[in-house]
Design goal:
Helices cover about 35% and strands about 20% of the residues. It is of the alpha+beta class and about 230 residues long. It folds into two domains: about 80 residues, no CATH class; about 120 residues, OB fold (Dihydrolipoamide Acetyltransferase, E2P), CATH 2.40.50. Strands 1-2-3-5-4 form a five-stranded mixed β-barrel. The chain is elongated and about 75 Å long. About 30% of the residues are buried. InterPro entries: DUF1980, DUF1980_C, DUF1980_N, UPF0703_membrane_permease. It comes from Solirubrobacter ginsenosidimutans.
Amino acid sequence: MNWDWTRVVRGLALATWGAFFAYLWISGRATTYIGPKTAWVVTLGALTLPLVAVAYLWGARSHPRAASAREVGANGLLIAPILLALMVPAPSLGALAVKNKRTKNPPAPIDAPVDGEIRLYEIAWAADSAKYAAANDLATGKAVDFVGFVSRDKLPGGQLELSRFFVSCCAADATAYSVKITPPAGEPPTPVDAWVRVRGTLAGQPGSTLSVAATALDKVSEPSNPYN
C-alpha cells in the first residue's frame, strides 16, 4: 500500500500529544503544569487529539507522497516539549521561587468567602485586610489547620514563614502567598522547602500583624496538587 508520509508524520505527532494529554489526565499530573481554570484543555486534548490523529492516518492510505526532511524536523520540534517534560519532570515551585517572586500579596477579594477549611492564602489575605478578616470571621483565636512549605526560617522571635503558590492559568503566572508561623515551644528546626501541616490558632491583629500560633507542626509529603 502506498502512503502519504507527510500525513503519517503529522498524524503521529498529533497522536503523541494526545497520548501525553491522556497521561496527564489519568495520572493527575496536569496540575504540575496548569491551573484548575485551564485543566479542561488536558481533558479536551486527551479526547480529541487521538481522533484527529486517526483521521489523519486514515487519509494517508492513498496519494503516495514522501515526507520531506523539513516536515519531519518541524513535527520533531512539535513533540520535543513532551520529551523534555518526561525526561525532566517539573519540580513544584519552592522557597527560591517565593524569594524571586516576592511582592505584596494581591488585594483580598472581599466577595470571595471562606468555603470550608481555611486555606493558607485566605490567612494571608486576612493578614493584609482587616475588612476581609472581619467578613470571614478570621479573628484572633480562630482555629486553623492547613498545609504549606517553609519559605523562610530563623525569623525574629523564632518564627517561620510558610508559603504556597496559587495558579490560575499555568505555573508561569503562579502567585506566592505567605504567612508567619510561631512554632510550638521546643519544636526542632524545620528545613526550608519542607512541607508541613500546621494546626493552631490565629494570633496578632488582622490587617497588620496576623500570624499563626501553632500547636502542632508536622512534616508531610508534598500534596498531589501543590498549587492550590
